[in-house]
């Protein structure tokens, strides 16, 4: 075997090993980052916007219910005053 062919063979083997190591490192980093994000409970912007909209709707509903309760309490108070007369 000549030196050039030995060099090519070694180069191919090394390149393949480097690719494998790179893939392995990428997978490990992705796994670690994913676990850290999960641990920190970070959400995507899309999920945040959805939850924000849901919360906004709930706040509006609660506000409307509070208003209805106040109105009903006023009405009840007026009715009780009328009955006392």
From TrEMBL:
Coiled coil: 15-75
Superkingdom per UniProt: Bacteria
Cross-referenced InterPro entries: UbiK (IPR007475)
Key words of the record: Coiled coil
Gene Ontology CC terms, in alphabetical order: cytosol
Keyword Ion transport attributed: no
Name of the protein in question: Cytoplasmic protein
């Amino acid at each position: 075997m000549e030196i050039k062919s030995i060099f090519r063979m070694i180069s191919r083997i090394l390149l393949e090993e480097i690719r494998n190591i790179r893939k392995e490192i990428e997978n490990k980093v992705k796994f670690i980052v994913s676990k850290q994000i999960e641990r920190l409970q970070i959400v995507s912007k899309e999920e945040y916007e959805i939850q924000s909209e849901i919360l906004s709707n709930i706040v509006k509903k609660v506000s409307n219910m509070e208003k209805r309760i106040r109105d009903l309490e006023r009405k009840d108070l007026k009715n009780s005053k009328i009955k006392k007369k």
